[in-house]
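Dear colleagues,

I hope this message finds you well. In preparation for our joint manuscript, I am sending the DUF3108 domain-containing protein (Candidatus Sulfurimonas marisnigri) sequence together with its predicted structure, so that both groups work from identical material. I would be grateful if you could confirm receipt.
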Amino acid sequence: MKILVMMFLFINFLYAQGFSTRYDVNVGMFGRVGYADLTLKENAESYELKLVAKTVDVAAFLLNNRVEIFISKGKIVNGKYIPDTFIKTKTKTRSNKVQSYYFNHEEKEITFVEEKTNLVSQTDFNPSTFEFTTRDVKESSKEEITLDDYIADDVLSSYLNTKSSCIDGQKSYNLFAIGAHNDENRVMLSCLDDTKKEATALLFSDGVKNIYNLHVEPMDKDETTVDVLVAYDNDGLLKEAVMDEVFWIGKITAKRVYHKISRK
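The corresponding structure tokens are as follows:
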């Protein structure tokens, strides 16, 4: 799910004051497995970017109705998006986990709060009736710590601050942000051009302008490195994404099906 979430974030916000976009996610052998809604609200001083990713049909059944929500809120100072809070919520049928990051940029500190709730089945025995009954019991926990390392961006604000494109001559971007693989800058976005771009363009529909390769190295060296192709349309916004064949399930694609943008 993390890789799919990152597909939706490669957007050029240079002219966008706000927008609402939906992407459908399809997997080769399963068809449509989910969708993601991405919305941006901003004014001259503050912003809020929200991404909601949901599973549907068979995928929802297999993943226990999994829903992930990412929210970044903060200030806009001299055109730069500076997060105050970043919240990740993961909800399943019987569990909920909320991870909140609070930025103190002056002290260069980040406070991390994790709250978990789980429904656990508990069986009780009634000696008078010799019957067993089962009920759900809610178990909750909360942990608060100060992170060892200070990082100025979260994964959403980081992309809001990436206003360069292939045209600007910068051919790759390293990502170092809360909410992404960040211990060794293991996420890189590279611009495709010339013959590589021409060959890759055949994978997408018409109207594609720039194409990038999202290269994600795994935290565990025994896992496989992932590459995702992301295509921008002519107005500089993400249109489609393709992840190559994954084991036996097939190709994973994301395609924009709804898009409304407001201009400054």
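For the figure legend, we might mention the following. Residues 124 and 133 are 5 Å apart (CA to CA). The first helix runs from residue 2 to 7.

With kind regards,
E.M.
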